[in-house]
Structure formats: C-alpha cells, structure tokens
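Friendly challenge for the regulars: who can give me the structure tokens for this chain first? No prize, just bragging rights.
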Amino acid sequence: MDFHLTTTLRDGRVTVVVSGELDIATTPLLRARLREAAARGPGEVVLDVSGLTFADAAGLGALVAARLHAESAGTALVLAEVPASLARLLRITGLDAQLLPPAWAGAPPGPYDGLTAP
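First reply, four minutes later:
Bragging rights claimed.
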C-alpha cells in the first residue's frame, strides 16, 4: 500500500498532506485524519493532494464526506495543490462544484493551488 499522510499545524491552520493512492483500502485512514483535523475547532483544514497518484470512487467519496464533516464542525476544508488529473476527475464527476472554490468549478483543466483563482 503506497499511502502516506502528514499533518502540520501552523498559525491555527491544519494542513494534511496526502500522497500515494486514495482507494477503498486507504480512505478510512484519510477520513480519520481529517476528522481529527476538523475537531481542532473552527478554522481551516488544508488538504494538500499534490502527491496523490490515484483516486477511485471510494477516494472521491471520502473527499466529499470530509468536506461535509468539516462543514458541520464549523471548519472549512480547502483542497490545495490539486494535480490536473484530479481536477479533471472532479470536473467530469461534477464534484468540482462541491470540492473546489467557485472560481475553480468548471475552470479549464490545470493544477489548482487552492489559494488563487485561475
């Protein structure tokens, strides 16, 4: 299983860096880590997916569930460093509107840094 999670806390912002394959075997690990991050209180959780090499339907479901959980905890979940392949997958499935900021939803394919509009 090629999957790694790293969490840092800086200036009240939790950043979770994910690398490897996000699939049915690894989604429970990501879900648990993001629940812990959102439980730290109101603020922002940044999910850096620059090292993500694969995501299946379970992985996409985990991202949606994490956003909903964070939202219910009063925390924003922000995807950062989204590779073009994942941005395209989110666009094809219509999940870009749920997981990417409005400026990025429906934008042309390209890497998404989570901080600046296209």
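The chain is about 35% helix and 30% strand. The chain has a mean pLDDT of 85. Your move, everyone else.
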